[in-house]
Each structure stands twice: as structure tokens, then as C-alpha cells.
Design a protein that fits this description.
alpha+beta, three-stranded antiparallel sheet, 32% helix, two-stranded antiparallel ribbon, 217 residues, 6 helices
């Protein structure tokens, strides 16, 4: 059977039309497995895919384990245990989108106990005079230490300043207005046009027979 790399109606996922059972014959993470085998695929294509994955993950309202840490490309249940060699690249794209004001992190409202006048700012507003250092601190102490079993019930002082406050439920990520404009007006149209003419033919055992078409560069 032939399957398109991208279905315009479901641009949240590559290889959307491949049946689940067939996909599992290919690989646990068959989307990425197939994407890496596209003829002449480049590192820049992989990074662009990560951008799409992150920014479209917010099309549902959910916690981070179902958005940027979802198992679409990786198993993020314990990020530091991942063996996949593209993990650092994925995290770097999260960081770049944060630094470019396309995504942000916030203390979940139902955990927010501060007085309205002292509401915890989004991460981008915390020590915003040095946003890059804030990102590195958060990356190293939260993203690279992410554990979906961690729950902290106590709040100790400055929320962002004390990493003992952080758990899998009380911090979420969201797409900003700038991120939505970038996705809808620039990234998504470019991504679709790039792969709209590319298909893969796969047998019933999950083996690639051939690629049909090519990336539109």
C-alpha cells in the first residue's frame, strides 16, 4: 500500500494514514523511523519536524506529558533515560521556541495559591533580563530531570526560584499568540508544501518497498 508522508487534514501527524497495527510492525516510533529513511533527508528537515511536533501538540488542552512530552516521537516518561540520539536536538528546539517567544511555561492555575497581586509570572517573565540563563536553569533542572511520577504538594517560597516546588502536574507549556501566527502563517504551509508530493509504499510486513516523489525544496 502507498501512504502519504503528510495528510493535509491531519498535519499534527506525519504518516497519519498508516494503520496502527502496520505501524507497530515497522517500529514502536514508526513515524520517526520512516521519516529518517526519506531519501536525502537533512538535519534541518528533522529540526523542522520537531518544530511542527511541538507547536501542533498544543492543539489539544492537556498537560505536558500529552503535549511536548507526548510519545509521538519519543518516550518522555523519563527524559534523562532516553537513548535516542536526537533527544538533545528536540530539547534545543523547545529552547529556541521559548527564547523566540513562541512558547512559554506557566504554573498551572489549579495549583496557583498566591494572592492575585502576587500571581506567579510565566517563566519568560521570571528574571526576564536574562532569559537565556533562565532557560538553561529550567532545562537542566526540569526538562532533563523530568519524571512523570514526581508530585510535590508543598510550595516553598519563590516558585520558579526553588526547583523543589516543581512536579509533573504544576508546570505546563503553552503556545503564545506569536507561536500560533508562526505556525499557521509560516511553518505549517511550508511543511505541507515540502512533503505533499511524497509517498512511501510499504508491504503488509512493514517493509519499505519504495519512495514515490521527493521532498519539494
Amino acid at each position: 500500500m502507498k501512504y502519504k508522508v503528510l495528510n493535509k487534514e491531519y498535519m499534527d501527524f506525519i504518516f497519519y494514514d498508516i494503520p496502527y497495527e502496520l505501524g507497530k510492525k515497522i517500529s514502536n516510533y514508526y513515524e520517526m523511523h520512516l521519516f529518517l529513511q526519506i531519501p536525502n533527508v537533512k538535519k534541518t528537515d528533522i529540526l523542522e519536524l520537531f518544530e511542527m511536533t511541538i507547536l501542533t501538540s498544543f492543539n489539544i488542552e492537556a498537560e505536558m506529558d500529552e503535549t511536548i512530552f507526548a510519545s509521538y516521537l519519543f518516550d518522555f516518561s523519563n527524559l534523562y533515560k532516553l537513548a535516542h540520539h536526537y533527544t538533545d536536538d528536540y530539547v534545543a528546539i523547545i529552547g529556541q521556541l521559548f527564547l523566540d517567544d513562541c512558547i512559554d511555561f506557566w504554573r498551572c492555575a489549579y495549583h496557583e495559591t498566591d494572592n492575585a497581586n502576587t500571581k506567579t509570572p510565566n517563566l519568560s517573565q521570571y528574571k526576564k533580563e536574562n532569559k537565556y540563563e533562565t532557560w538553561k536553569y529550567f532545562r537542566d533542572n526540569y526538562i532533563y530531570s523530568y519524571n512523570d511520577n514526581l508530585v510535590n504538594h508543598a510550595t516553598k517560597g519563590d516558585f520558579w526560584g526553588n526547583l523543589d516546588n516543581w512536579d509533573m502536574y504544576n508546570i505546563n507549556c503553552f503556545r503564545t499568540q506569536k507561536g500560533t501566527r508562526y505556525l499557521n502563517e509560516i511553518l505549517a504551509p511550508k511543511f505541507y508544501n515540502k512533503y505533499k508530493d511524497l509517498e512511501v509504499e510499504i508491504d503488509d510486513k512493514g517493509n519499505i518497498i519504495r519512495w514515490i516523489g521527493e521532498i519539494n525544496r
